[in-house]
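Q: Hi! First time doing this. I have a protein sequence and I read that you can turn it into a structure. Is that right? Here it is:
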Amino acid sequence: MKKKEKLTDAEAVNQWLDARTADERELIDVIRAIVTSVDTSIAERIKWNAPSYHINGIDFLTFGPVKNGVVLLVFHHIAIVRISSTILTGDYKDRRLVTCADMSALLSIQDELRRVVKEVVDKIV
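A: Yes, that's right. Below is the predicted 3D structure, encoded as structure tokens:
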């Protein structure tokens, strides 16, 4: 029996994206562009069954489940608990969440999302 070849990170992310609805995909693609625009060292891969972002191999952000069109982002690097932002929710000891219901909501928080990602990355590197 022939062994199945492992997908590249990009192929695995694209496979995950292909399973999303058109509206979800549009929103997710803009979020992906915001996150990766912060630093050229940010890389994307599938971890925990969704696109995840890491820098120097250190994971810090992963898409959560998309429910009823609402996109969930999970900042799961411990540095996030020291960052103050109106877009971060949850009082967990090691993570914070960001939710986004639609494109207008995303556009209203995009600068703050970029700032939060940059601050996390700066604390990691």
